[in-house]
């Protein structure tokens, strides 16, 4: 009995264990066979009808997907019955009892998984630009849509993105947010990286001093960029030719193939400096031989500045004509008033500094010094005629031949008037005659005299008159301080104190206009053109002479006796 009970318990336990195992296997089977909503599942196309594909996703579930969700970038659909595809299971059963599935969402989920890995590994992803939006473009990354900013399309601004549309090409993911569904990509980063690799390869094959052909890619005011086969080099305007180049477009055009020399390579910045003139002989090597000092050559004015003008003697050789060497006579004139750009001129070589590549030229040296010419044609004493160009406080400036001036000093204006008074008689533009009194070629000065052409009335009037002479004058005016007298047309003044030896007779009123008086000459001043006269001095001199001739006061004779005797003697003579 007991054994039967034990056997029965054992059979129950076995049955229970089998049920548990069966339930576990059933649950496992259900977990495996039943797809989970919100996941990507595999299915098989069992039919294609009415623009849709009917797909069996297992567990006796079927769903429908529009064929357009299977289209490639070109819009073509390559799908056949029996094909295995992946779809996204939204719901196990919809209102029609079918599974709600999507191929687009499956591709999007697949794409996001792939793109997140690429973003984490900083690897490139393939995509195609398919639309334009504000600020940039939309890119299909194989199921996920990304934004391509306009600034990230190319290394240079793109005016027409048409050729790039629909073309499969690599992109770099700049940032992405799966929760928000945002992806930003860059095409420019790929191009810059490729360009950097290409530049490194090309630069590695270049060496300084190497000659190479290149294509002019771009022209700026300061030079041109030349494509050397994947890498650009800068050809500066100063390295294009030995001569002056005002703008690169004078000798280059975009697309032109040119031979250049690699001047310098910066390995760190990958910058390449190029030159064209270095492939030609340097004209400065023969400058000293070709242009000896004081030799005269023809040249062309290339540039005009405030301090002078640059003249090209030959291609690559320019000299400076300083403003001080441009004209003998135009001292304070801008060089542009003397020469003009592109004008052909004759210049003289004044100095050469080959080390500094400088040539000093002279323009005025090719013409004769006008002061030398004037001195040859107008010796001292020659009479000239000219126009008053300027009037200053110290004289007149008179225009002469070859744009030079001569000066008439105040003291050379008149014999009879003070210079300050005489200059009032002249106006700018008056024509005057004068005599050349001095020509200083070194100082570039010409002295003239207007009075030299007139008679010197003072000299003529006092001819033979010396200090101590007694002359007869005519009273012309009576004044409180003395009298004015005239001698041969020359006016003089006898002061009150000089009117008589006796103080009582020093009265101007005792004279009348027209009286003749004898006076002794005390001074002949040619500068002031005045005679110093004194009646008192004449009387004293006569007294002294009388004393010497007729006796002295020591012999007992009185002054009255002596003068009386002198007067009687005079009467007798």
UniProtKB/TrEMBL annotation:
- Gene3D superfamilies according to UniProt: Nucleic acid-binding proteins
**GO CC terms, sorted:** cytosolic small ribosomal subunit
S1 motif domain boundaries = 38-104, 122-188, 209-277, 294-364, 381-451, 468-536
Tell me if Repeat is a UniProt keyword of this record: yes
Q: Name one GO biological process term.
A: translation
Record keywords: Repeat, Ribonucleoprotein, Ribosomal protein, RNA-binding
Xref: InterPro entries: NA-bd_OB-fold, Ribos_protein_bS1-like, Ribosomal_bS1, Ribosomal_protein_S1-like, S1_domain
Tagged with keyword Ribonucleoprotein: yes
- What domain of life does the native source organism fall in? Bacteria
Q: Name one GO molecular function term.
A: mRNA binding
| Main function | Binds mRNA; thus facilitating recognition of the initiation point. It is needed to translate mRNA with a short Shine-Dalgarno (SD) purine-rich sequence.
Question: Which family does the record claim for this protein?
Answer: Belongs to the bacterial ribosomal protein bS1 family.
Query: What is the recorded name of this protein?
Result: 30S ribosomal protein S1
